[in-house]
User: What shape does this take?
Amino acid sequence: MKNWLKTLLSGMAIGFGSAVPGVSGGTIAVIFGVYNKIIWAVSNILKHFKEAFRVLLPTLLGVVLALIPTIYLMDKALDSFVFGVVCIFAGFIIGSIPGIKDEVKDVKPNKVHIIILIISALVAIALGIASVLAKADVSIYFYGQTPIWFYFVMIPVGIVASIALVVPGLSGGMLLLLMGFYAPLINYTTDTIKECIQGHNWSNFGNLAGILGCFLIGALIGFYFVSKLMNYLLSKYHDYTFYSILGFVLGSVPALFFNFKIYEYYGKWQAKMVTPLYIEIPIGIVLLIGVTTASYMLVRYKRKVEQNQKEIVE
Assistant: This one.
């Protein structure tokens, strides 16, 4: 039961992080120490169904429980306090980087390790920049009469988004931002749910179910096949893979502060449409420092627990 609850909480953290642009669900899994276990479970679900099911059930349940309220909160936060939210997640990631590096602490980095790390970091940063340059907008296909072909488009969109759940440092929210699907997907979901609950208007619910259903199908397909790939890489090229992961995580921090959504928010600062920057920046800095410190303290605590367990075994 203790392991089940721990996995459930880890799943909730993954779901919470996956909904935020710049934050990687895979990174959260690495930080909570469940990444290898989840990758193994997904890639071996057919061979070892019972063992894999015990891992995946609480994980997926946690993701769903956290994802729904997070979408609502992000819908609100993205209106008036984006920078503060970004600082919280940046602090969480920065403080956890030493814990991720522990995976290769006994490995002396060579030139290949450094090159892999740098390239991975640049890719993560480039995604943020590309999302600003793309300025894609597909919201017209969500509202009104959604064409049939658009449902099938949501399947590859789900596949791409699921890659970020498996590859630490890649943000699903960021990839959706890059493709122009992040804001429309969140806005349409929250608007339709509000119509159903508050206005008792269920006319758009079927359309939403079709869009999310196709997106989920794509996410499951991508999650399974990419998990098998990551399981292979971790078993055959563990050190190289983790240096790549570390690079993506490092690159995701600046990408948090420069992507389409927050770049749009910076414009609202200038237009004085949201929380004034002279208020939000100091609050954000305090949150960044506080969360970074707290996150690093958790890493130190985790190290201490693992050291005690090792001493007991010896």
